[in-house]
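Appendix B. One record, verbatim.
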Amino acid sequence: MVTNWLSHIEFAYPWVLALLLLLPVLAVVYFKKKNKKTATLKVGYIGANHYKSSKIRMSNFPFWMRMVAMFFLIVALARPRQKYVESETTGDGIDIVLCFDISGSMTERDFNPNRLEASKAVATQFVEGRPGDRIGITIFSNLSFTLTPVTADHALVLQQISNIQAGMLGEEGTAIGSGLATSVDRLRQSKAKSKIIILLTDGVDFGGAISPDVAVNMAKTYGIKVYTIGVGSMQEVDEPADPANGGKSQKRKLEFNEGLLQQMAMATGGKYFRATDNNALVGVYENINQLEKSKIEVKTYNRYVELYRPWLLAAIILLVLELVLRSTVFFRFP
């Protein structure tokens, strides 16, 4: 409980807390002085009644009240306060749609652990680095679907990225045109000065309801730039052993279509990138970050809620109670 409380506060004058080190010193001085007085009384009144009343047993109570009061007072003087950080964003952001290919070919393991998971990880970093932009998510295989409309709620966007799984639309195939068209539809009514789509796929198009050419023309009509990322390599991989092939594994070349992605990017004023491994994919997003900079300014304000008053009030109450007890219940004649 104390640890949780401390994690949410800071002290305006933390050096004042060093005074807490005086409390154990005061306690040692007090008990040494008291023991000395007790020894003197024993010598002077040998044979006296050694019965200790409850009043004598509680004689240290006012002292401990004063020690606790001093603890509270020192904490109050250090001025504990809770800090709130508020941000104000001004300027023009960019509306972005991240368009993910989730077809079966995106599960190829020429990336670690595969193409899709590597793409999700880097896209997450990209979103986290664009605080002033509105971002949406679309996915496609043979069908296309909007996971998240364009929004400033980046927590929602990040959650949806983590939920993306290959084959979640239930249809196999790669309809790049449909995926791009759905992304364009998310941006066509946007009022942002800059609108971009980042289409991430292995570029193997097997057709769909809308051809890539039609989708590209839609993007040009609405002034949307398309950045295409070709994810994958031309390397050969070992296929699992097939009983029909005598139980032997065989080589298969990974499919990849750069030409289509280059044409789509060039036609819309965007740019094509090739990512052959995880590190190259990180570099691609860094390049896009440099090409598409938001004209925004984020101002951060620190707001504080003072918490010293309860500590100060508790210290005053304990000191008053101690004074009352010393003047009544624990009053001693000279």
